UniProtKB/TrEMBL annotation:
Domain Glucosamine/galactosamine-6-phosphate isomerase, first and last residues per copy: 11-230
Annotated source species: Tumebacillus flagellatus
Top-level taxon of the source organism: Bacteria
GO molecular function: glucosamine-6-phosphate deaminase activity; identical protein binding
Keywords associated with the record: Carbohydrate metabolism, Hydrolase
InterPro entries on file: Glc/Gal-6P_isomerase, Glucosamine6P_isomerase, NagB/RpiA_transferase-like
CDD domains: GlcN6P_deaminase
Annotated GO biological process: carbohydrate metabolic process; glucosamine catabolic process; N-acetylglucosamine catabolic process; N-acetylneuraminate catabolic process
Name this polypeptide is given: Glucosamine/galactosamine-6-phosphate isomerase domain-containing protein
Pfam families reported in the protein's UniProt record: Glucosamine_iso (PF01182)
Length: 246
């Protein structure tokens, strides 16, 4: 496990983007699972800049989304798919045939989850999963209580997760459930990249990195992965007790 504490979130985001660039130079057809939300926005901006400067290409990747809330916009485009279209896929030149997304409008959600799981397996699993960490320690939509062996499924969202999700989308408040890749899917990935910034994440970052490995804090399972890189700003790292950073 590698932990980088950067002086600013802008610098952390640049270094995190460099991890993706490095992977794609080694393996242009890498299978990448993308997170959404405010946390990775600057990293995605840096990645797109690298694409536009010709330093790297996304033309051969296989792209998956980490999760998707059950509420869908008036355009019938799932919110997280629209986020990735805006911040990664369209500016980075990723084509529809390269992309797989979870569909919360599917008539049979269990069948949709099985389809997605089969697509992950057919792709050979994830080369890289990009992660944030929830205030309650969730990874993707794997809320506290999720088992390490969990796979793609429908989940009920914790109130705090629902509120944070709704805060991104003005006028929306009904984020009660979602579809998510499981902890086993994440931990099976060859490489993990975890982003956290701000004082509000300090306590849960400390628990995830230095606390007991437990279903109570799903992000604590990252301690068991052999190739995980954390990118933090000083505020998010402020409660770490030193041994982690030594």
């Amino acid at each position: 496990m590698e932990i980088q504490v950067n002086p600013t979130w802008e610098e952390a985001s640049r270094h995190a983007a460099d991890v993706i660039v490095e992977l794609l130079r080694r393996k242009p057809n890498a299978v990448i699972c993308f997170a959404t939300g405010n946390t990775p926005k600057l990293m995605y901006r840096e990645l797109v800049r690298c694409v536009r400067e010709g330093r790297v290409s996304l033309a051969d990747i296989r792209a998956f989304a980490l999760d998707e809330p059950g509420t869908v916009s008036e355009t019938n485009v799932p919110f997280f798919r629209a986020f990735l279209d805006e911040h990664v896929y369209e500016p980075g030149g990723v084509q529809d045939f390269q992309i797989d997304s979870l569909n919360p409008l599917a008539d049979d959600l269990d069948a949709e989850c099985r389809r997605y799981q089969a697509a992950i397996r057919e792709a050979g699993g994830f080369d890289l999963v990009i992660l944030g960490i929830g205030l309650n320690g969730h990874l993707a939509y794997n809320e506290p209580g999720s088992t390490r062996s969990s796979r793609t499924r429908r989940v009920q969202l914790a109130p705090s997760t629902s509120q944070v999700t709704a805060a991104y989308y003005t006028g929306e408040s009904a984020f009660e459930w979602g579809l998510t890749v499981g902890l086993a899917d994440i931990l099976d990935a060859k490489q993990l990249l975890v982003l956290a910034n701000g004082e509000s994440k300090a306590a849960i970052v400390q628990q995830a990195l230095e606390g007991a490995v437990s279903e109570r804090v799903p992000a604590s399972f990252l301690q068991e992965h052999g190739a995980v890189r954390w990118f933090l700003d000083p505020a998010a790292a402020s409660q770490l007790r030193g041994k982690t950073l030594s």
